[in-house]
Task: structure prediction
Amino acid sequence: MAVSTTIDKVAPDKTPDKTGPRRPVVYRSLSSDRKWALRWSYFFLVLFCIFFLMPPVYMLITSLKTSAEISADPATTNPWWVYKPTLENYVELLTSSQFLTFFKNSIIVAVSTVIITMLIAIPAAFSLARMKFWGSTTLATGVFLTYLVPDTLLFIPLFKMLATLRDWTGIELFNRWYVLLVIYPTLTVPFCTWIMIGYFASIPKELDEAAIIDGATWWQTLTKIFIPVALPGLIAATIFAFTVSWAQFLYPLAFTTSNDQLVLPVGIISSLIKGDVFNWGQIMTGALLGAAPPLIIYAFLMDYYIAGLTAGATKG
Amino acid sequence: MVDMTAGQSAAVPRQIRKPKSPIARFFGRRSTIAFLMALPLILLIGVLVIYPAFYSLHLATLNKRMTEFRGFDNFSFLLFKKDAFWTVVYSSCLFAVSAVIFKAFIGFVVAHFVHNIPAKGQRKWRGMLLIPWVIPPAMSTLAWLWLFDSSYGALNWTLAKIGIGPIPWIGEPGWARFSVILVNVWFGAPFFMIMYLASLKSVPDALYEAADIDGATWWQKIRYITLPMMRNIIAITTLFSLIVTFANFDIVRVLTQGGPLDQTHLFATWAFEIGIRSGDIPLGASVSLFMVPILAIAAVFILRDINKRGNEA
Amino acid sequence: MADVTLRKLVKMYDQVQAVKGIDLEIKDKEFVVLVGPSGCGKSTTLRMIAGLEEISGGQILIDDDVVNDVPPKDRDIAMVFQNYALYPHMTVHENMSFGLRLKKFPKAEIAKRVGEAARILDITELLERKPKALSGGQRQRVAMGRAIVRNPKVFLFDEPLSNLDAKLRVQMRIEIKKVHQTVRTTTVYVTHDQIEAMTLADRVVVMNGGVIEQVGTPQELYHNPRTRFVAAFIGSPSMNFVPCRLESHADQLAVRISNEIAFFMPEQKAARYKKLSGDGQLLLGLRPEHLTDMRQHMEPGCVPFDAQLEVTEPMGMETFVYFKMNGADMCGRVNPNAGALDGGPLKMAADLNNMHLIDAKTGLVL
Result:
């Protein structure tokens, strides 16, 4: 085939390939095409943003309203507008000892879970990524499978296990926030281990060999080389562990009941909703405050947060 | 041929070897240390995940007071005697399948829009669009509950302005199912968007340029370049989301509590209702165990795809 | 300062021998290069010396001590890796001093050694930078600096220049040679690049398939290769091989390549090959520089022949010409003014003073 020699023989107004199907050719300028594509993209992005941001924005709007305004006749008022902004909902919640207890419980539980998770996940990931032992490959796969086991499958047997353990030991395990410290790592450790394996495995093997030759023990290799180098992964894993334990709803709902032991999400739902009476101003304020810590972390560490999200499927 | 003893007998070189106690040697072995480092993980998974999973199987064979072994009575009771069970199966499947499809679709579309705009603005949009995923679902569902409110809710107010409504968002079974799916799509679509966006960015621009020169339309580019290149991520994300959505608890629990008339119950919320609220642990365990087959199938496929990824890399 | 001895060194990977019992003595202050194609066991050998790979059989001695069971850190060695393996979160100074800090050296001593190494390598201004902010050549220097500050008995280099571009590679090659002249530490250097091996080494060890093919100075390897493999591996473009037979004509000996082509050997070569029987399968080996254009005054032993050129590659100083001799691809090196043209004929000469005869079956140079 003498493709190159035929080019100059083809008249410019004819399609070179006459046998192929032809499409009607409409030439628009490339830049105007692109400009329109861009406009449509922005238009739809704005629409989707309205959809995605509506609930949190509405939370904020409602939290600034008085109860009178919330229950005002919808025919005369616009629910999307705050006529008389007030902070009284915030003041009321942040001075209520009950709400502060929820908040305190949540923080203790989430922070401790993060620490426990890291203490378990980092050494395990290091050993699975680098120091092969009998069954380590199976274990790595097992870690991932564990991550796929949902909480909704385990809460009933765990409930019964806690009951049995209480009957054996006489230690009250129900309705105690610290029980959550034992349960929550099942949600966080597998994923954190999994992504840390990915981050550790992406560190070139020569780096630990250099460390070995430099005379580092395996412990020094972990603390002085691996942890600093994989710090972005570590931050991503920490954020994940924190947000998961902060948002967890099922386990505290099943295992804790009395007001002084509740964490925030359950506390807001069970204490602010009394029967059919909904104090929406306070509920929305509580929900917003409950959403605030993850949102703040997200605002400051967005790139790590997203790296952690995508790491599960792209690493390892 | 190899003769390992020859050198030692000939030159008798002095050996630099510190004497070690048996215990020191045991701990000095790399694989032993490795195992000990993974031990907390193994214990955690064994005691708090694998054991409860099988314990649940045992619980499901007991009677309500957990005093007698009843074999598969609970399962057959659910399958053949309890009508509500089939409602739960139906609404769980409907919920999971339609929510995942919409999440995947919306995520794909939004990811494309974000990918289209200039790179320096992308971070800001991506940041805003992921917010639903960041808010604890129990909290954001409260906001939806308030938006759905039949008399003071903002949604019905807005729809009334354009002449629609009022819609019984959570008051009527059909709409309640729709609302639950809507909230789940709202919550989960950003996750798909982020995953797809990451994978879109990994498609080399040169492929699109080559396709442009070959005369491909935008649709052909999606069909023959984008989708094949993203296939693995799409599969993993979808299967993963299928598991999470199928096992969802928070949204239904907060939004409808299974109502109206138990029409929106999912396996998880129904199991909670029966196992914890009504105290019939064995029956609750049986209900949640019915999730296992679907979860297992999805998990097997994910594992296959993840391994495939590993091999490609 | 030390010498390194390998005795019947063996490495097994799942029943496969990667290193098949090699013996090697490396003298104090010597620069030895292990060279060979990928998978020949050269890197494995180096890593066994470093202690990064377990030794399956045989012994490694550093300074008369068997180090088979000595962990890397106690072997008093330093290693430079192909991808530099700099710690990305540490500055150059921290990278270089990491080993010393782990060994709890006094601060003043560390500062002195790092300063000195930095001066030798000319990286004093880079000490506070992170590896990310360095160019490839600078990273390479830092990696060497990290080795130098340890003041070890043995330097090990594992293909240290493969990640650099061609120009920088030449530069760093000279740099490495200079450093060795300054610190004079026993060095084992692994590369797949025979030019690197030839230019750097006091002695070159050519490895293939887990065994040592030949050990010798660069000149020895080039002029007196012991096997076909070494003959082909050393030198670029590589040696030409063409099947041939020996023929006796009265008191003269000739190599017959085909019915048309036969070359008479010069005296001293004929004397060397006289004992060989004529029927063994042989290969004639000639380097490209010994296939030249026909000139006015040819040395005795140069035999003219006609070549039908296929392709020519003008290099400036010389021109490579490619042609076929009885079906075998040949490369010759001719004067740019010899009138070599693509597809044209050329009168050429083969310098048989530098010929090699190789037993085609055993691959040994006769």
Summary: Chain B is about 75% helix and 0% strand.
